[in-house]
Amino acid sequence: MAFMEKPPAGKVLLDDTVPLTAAIEASQSLQSHTEYIIRVQRGISVENSWQIVRRYSDFDLLNNSLQIAGLSLPLPPKKLIGNMDREFIAERQKGLQNYLNVITTNHILSNCELVKKFLDPNNYSANYTEIALQHVSMFFRSEPKWEVVEPLKDIGWRIRKKYFLMKIKNQPKERLVLSWADLGPDKYLSDKDFQCLIKLLPSCLHPYIYRVTFATANESSALLIRMFNEKGTLKDLIYKAKPKDPFLKKYCNPKKIQGLELQQIKTYGRQILEVLKFLHDKGFPYGHLHASNVMLDGDTCRLLDLENSLLGLPSFYRSYFTQFRKINTLESVDVHCFGHLLYEMTYGRPPDSVPVDSFPPAPSMAVVAVLESTLSCEACKNGMPTVSRLLQMPLFSDVLLTTSEKPQFKIPTKLKEALKIAKECIEKRLIEEQKQIHQHRRLTRAQSHHGSEEERKKRKILARKKSKRSAIENSEEHSAKYTNSNNSGSGASSPLTSPSSPTPPSTTVEHAPF
């Protein structure tokens, strides 16, 4: 087929999940407005930072666009008179800094295209919907039986993955969803192996995997078609959301926070663990488990987006598990992400932070036991249990699954080897990033400790003690020399005695405290 005949652009090296931080460094007043100079940094490296200049009107425009999320964001109010006063500008700068802190620490907002474009216009200036439409239209030239009904604007969280509602021309009532995505930074398969594996996905049959109707790929992207499900995903059920609504509107600020029933938690959890075990046994890397990647088909959970790891896309929860060096394989990533999903099913919302120090009351202590094994401080520090271990825990061990569908997913030996090598490369990049974050955290802690008020006081006291001791030693040494001089001058035959035994001066060089 002639899908995307133009030369490939190659994989996108930028990892969109690496957090951006923003600090207002200064402000400058012009004739009728004030500009704020902002230092934006990607990740932990100071070298990976840049300056942007924004006016209050830019913040206001961003805030209006983010209203779809339904959150009350702390943007300082407008002021028409006296807005050039020095004190007012200083106060507003504090308010705008607080606003930036809120949007960059909110997991969903910080990953959305609106915020990325505001903070990093150089890397996010493209119109990704337009790019996706160009690729999709090329596909339709060779596959005329499909037809676009409408774009499903921003229904997912990924900036470089777009969705379209489809239909088949001779079956106009049936609705399907087409997804198109760029290659990501973790694409390590050769182009040939990548395309073969993408085209293999429609042959994957499993009671807990959502069926792929059609799949194709070229050297720079992939396109997949699945049946549209009116009920939506597991996340739509938890948040009582409409599947076609934008991601920000659906999940940022749910109107009613309520977890699922215990039996639902047990059944859905068991089904998801079963399919994870199936993929792990097959040597197929997943690493993309979250509630929006689980389709609900009646009372059955079916996993979505198996193509993400082939495309090399970073995980939704990557900024969480890169903090913990023991979560360093895709199997352990899946287990940790299962903890996030279980928390959402139980409490109707994601955890405020990870690791979780203490868990709110749950429908059963068996739920808490699984959460502790995947999200607690101890688990994140010491490592994740296996999927097989989770299946043996009381919450899931007594769940009876009734399905007659036999799993089928034949992966040729050559492609299995390619998957194994790609998986090792993905894990190698993860381990390297975790190592850098760990080293940065240690350095930051040491600098913070060294610069703390208490530490400075200790160093001052120590310096005074050393200075005092040195003065005493000098005084005693001078006294001893004076006594010796007097004794030898008198011609007395009595042996020399010193009034005290002064401590000899140290032969080691001591650095002054700083």
Can you lay out the helices and strands and say which pair or pack?
Elements: E1 20-29, E2 34-42, E3 49-55, H1 56-65, H2 86-105, H3 107-110, H4 113-119, H5 128-142, E4 146-151, E5 161-168, E6 171-182, H6 191-200, E7 214-217, E8 221-227, H7 234-239, H8 247-251, H9 262-282, E9 294-297, E10 300-303, H10 307-311, H11 318-321, H12 330-347, H13 365-375, H14 377-382, H15 387-392, H16 394-397, H17 413-450, H18 453-490
Give an overview of the whole structure:
With 514 residues, the chain is α+β, with helices and mostly antiparallel strands. It has helices spanning 56-65, 86-105, 107-110, 113-119, 128-142, 191-200, 234-239, 247-251, 262-282, 307-311, 318-321, 330-347, 365-375, 377-382, 387-392, 394-397, 413-450, 453-490, and strands at 20-29, 34-42, 49-55, 146-151, 161-168, 171-182, 214-217, 221-227, 294-297, 300-303. The chain has a five-stranded antiparallel sheet with strand order 4-5-6-8-7, sandwiched between helices. Strands 1-2-3 form a three-stranded antiparallel sheet. Strands 9-10 form a two-stranded antiparallel ribbon. Helix 9 (262-282) packs antiparallel against helix 12 (330-347). It is globular and about 95 Å long. It starts with 19 loop residues before the first strand and ends in a 24-residue tail after the last helix. This is PX domain-containing protein kinase-like protein isoform X14. It comes from Castor canadensis.
Quantity of strands, as a count: 10
Question: What coarse outline follows from CA principal-axis ratios?
Answer: globular
The parts where pLDDT drops under 50 for at least 5 residues are 1-8, 486-514
Strand order of the largest sheet: 4-5-6-8-7
Calculate the mean pLDDT score and round it: 88
Radius of gyration: 31 Å
- Roughly how many Å apart are the termini? 69 Å
Organism: Castor canadensis (American beaver)
Protein name: PX domain-containing protein kinase-like protein isoform X14
